[in-house]
């Protein structure tokens, strides 16, 4: 059974610790997602776009996102604007969900992407509200129930909030 385990954190440092521990516990970067508000001001944004070397753009871009190394190593990290919500930084499977059909659907934006990842709509709305308040959403996808328990333990050890799990919708 495909499932994901979710939590929110209040600080980037807390999120970094969780991602690092998940990596040490054997989770792959493609299985870990992070979604956080992009708090860079326009001054930071302007500075980032004045980089000289194209080959340095990726590294500088990640550093410029205001996330540390652990989150920076996740798959597909990037900044995106969600209509009606604002700028976000996303990494992992949630980036694909946000960049895909979920944006612009009736549920729209973050809620649509979370529902697409298997979170019940009422929980997706709660996570959406938490993210809008500045919290960071972290999710781990795994088919293994023991690994889900490991992820939950990592979340608990790091005092994460709103820990839950959801089965992902599968085609019948």
Tags for this model:
alpha+beta; 6-stranded antiparallel β-sheet; 8 helices
Radius of gyration: 16 Å
Give the termini separation.
13 Å
Helix count equals 8
Largest sheet: 6 strands, antiparallel
Q: What integer is the average pLDDT? A: 73
Tell me the total number of β-strands.
Answer: 6
The run of helices and strands is EHEHHHEEHHHEHE
Helix-strand blueprint:
Layout: E1 3-9, H1 12-24, E2 32-37, H2 42-48, H3 57-64, H4 69-72, E3 78-82, E4 86-91, H5 93-99, H6 109-116, H7 121-132, E5 136-142, H8 145-157, E6 161-167
Antiparallel strand pairs: 1-5, 1-6, 2-4, 2-5, 3-4
Summarize this, please?
By secondary structure, the chain is an alpha+beta fold. It is built from 8 helices and 6 strands.
Describe the structure.
The protein is of the alpha+beta class. The chain contains eight helices and six strands. A six-stranded antiparallel sheet has the order 3-4-2-5-1-6, with helices on both faces. The protein is globular and about 40 Å long. The model is unreliable at 42-63 and 101-107 (pLDDT under 50).
């Amino acid at each position: 059974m495909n499932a994901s385990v979710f939590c929110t954190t209040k600080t980037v440092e807390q999120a970094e610790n969780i991602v690092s521990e998940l990596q040490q516990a054997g989770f792959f970067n493609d299985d870990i997602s992070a979604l956080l508000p992009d708090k860079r001001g326009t001054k930071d944004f302007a500075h980032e776009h004045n980089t000289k070397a194209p080959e340095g753009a990726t590294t500088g871009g990640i550093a410029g996102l205001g996330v540390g190394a652990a989150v920076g190593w996740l798959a597909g990290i990037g900044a995106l604007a969600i209509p009606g919500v604002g700028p976000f930084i996303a990494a992992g499977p949630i980036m694909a969900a946000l960049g895909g059909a979920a944006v612009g659907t009736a549920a729209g934006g973050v809620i649509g992407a979370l529902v697409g990842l298997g979170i019940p709509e009422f929980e997706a709305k709660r996570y959406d509200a938490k993210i809008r308040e500045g919290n960071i959403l972290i999710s781990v996808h795994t088919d293994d129930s023991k690994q889900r328990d490991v992820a939950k333990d990592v979340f608990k050890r790091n005092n994460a909030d709103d820990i839950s799990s959801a089965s992902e919708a599968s085609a019948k």
